[in-house]
Amino acid sequence: MSDIKVSIFSQILGLLHRESVKKIILQHNSDKFSKGINTWTHLVSMVFMQVANCGSLRDIASGLLSATGNLNHFGIVKPPCKSSLSYINKNRDYEVFRDIYFTMVDKLGPHRPDLRAFARKIKKKIYILDSTTITLCLSLFDWAHYKTNKGAVKLHTVLDYDSGLPTYAYLTDGKKADVRVAKTMTFAKNSVLVMDRAYVDFKWLFNLDSSGVTFVTRLKSNAHIEVVETFLTNDKHEHILSDEDIRLCGFYSSADYPEKLRLVTVYDEKNKQNIVLLTNNISWTADHISQLYRARWAIESFFKQLKQLFSVKTFVGLSENAVQIQIWCSLIAILLLMYIKNKAKYPWHMSNLVAFLRLNLFVKIDLWYWADYPVIRPGKPPNKNGQLSFNF
């Protein structure tokens, strides 16, 4: 390990494919008005903010300045000052960071065998659709309209069930309805889309069905339906209360979705409530439908990790562009750490990995040795039966 001359953070940056990043930078021409800070230095600074948990531009500049001897390993000449960071966060287009994230997802997107085992039963690509709201101070972020006295942005996300990472993300103000954003998305034929009832728009659901997409969602309580056929439930699955084929009865809803749908009622033991699931798949077992909807928890876990472990609640810039850059760099950071977590031999939890990494960010040790063996085990204690010998 003594031969390692670069820090752990330098090796994490090395996971980014520099040639791919350079191509994206050239495509966007994002270094044209760089003010001495090129896009790579900007990217390193904002990823450092996320990994090191910096709370301000001063923290970013000071943190990078403290690593003076390591900056050449980061691929930067000198650390940016806080005024330069403020300027480029406002003026450099966030889209270059968005494209860097999606390019890196294709190259580094980790696979989770525990999730894929269930996906193999379905034999289809599974996506989970949801959004999360990030509250902002309306007096400072006056562009982020949400409520009368409150501002917010909303991150609309499509999570790949295999990798546990977003394959689509779109940031809007807090007032944007979830289903309006969903209508702009397209999904591959034979894929499965799992979502909450905020996305129940029967015309859009019928378009998904016509495109060969299977969906699983929750039925709204005010929907008018008629039962076409009732099926016996399997005694092995006591949480399945009913399994029915239905048709919509409402004037507009029946016109929007004229075909049969399937209704599976499931008992949620944790919350002590019945959940009514709606799907266009007629052939799968009722338990498969319930397991698919249960998989929706993966996106809730992702949002929880993003908000608790990375800087997406406190922003270092007030403009919409600066907020976009910070959120996209947080996604790049979680992608890099998820890659390390899934490749390491040590059974990391994401919270532990982030905490340990922040303590060892500038330590010069092999990244994968550290990820596999983060704790030095003490040697065996001396024999308790042994006695000390004294020579007189």
Description:
The protein is 41% helix and 19% strand. It is an alpha+beta fold and 392 residues long. Strands 1, 2, 3, 4, 5, 6, 7, 8, 9 and 10 form a ten-stranded mixed β-sheet that branches. Among the domains are: 8-97 and 318-372, no CATH class; 197-295, no CATH class. The model has no long low-confidence stretch (mean pLDDT 88). The longest helix has 24 residues, at 320-343.
Write the SSE topology.
Blueprint: H1 8-13, H2 18-28, H3 39-52, H4 57-65, H5 71-74, H6 82-91, H7 95-108, H8 113-122, E1 126-136, E2 145-147, E3 150-160, E4 165-173, H9 178-182, E5 192-195, H10 202-210, E6 214-218, E7 225-231, E8 240-248, H11 251-256, E9 261-268, E10 273-279, H12 286-294, H13 297-309, H14 320-343, H15 350-359, H16 367-372
Parallel strand pairs: 1-5, 5-6
Antiparallel strand pairs: 1-3, 2-3, 3-4, 6-10, 7-8, 8-9, 9-10
Overview features:
392 residues; 41% helix; 10-stranded mixed sheet; 19% strand
